[in-house]
Amino acid sequence: MxxxxxxxxxxxxxxxxxxxxxPQSSSYDAEVGIPKEVYEMMTARSLYxxxxxxxxxxxxxxxxxxxxxxxxxxxxxxxxPGDGPLLHAHQFT
Length: 93
What we know:
- The protein is an alpha+beta fold.
- The protein has a domain at 16-78.
- Helix content is 22%, strand content 17%.
- The protein has 3 helices and 3 strands; from the N terminus they run H-H-H-E-E-E.
């Protein structure tokens, strides 16, 4: 197997630092005008977008920490204790 060497700068472009990621709930409050409390009642407390395609568009692809060429998104959903996502399916993803 061939070994590939990466520079620290090349690696840093592919690293998501959790402490520097702005939660999606904050962007909804500011951009769309939905109060944060209302948004959190319908979704997770905060959604942290770690990775998404650079040209995906839509609300779940705004300012990802890492952009990718493939069609994969990685999101961390923060929920209060005893709460969590409702049963759902991602049929086309």
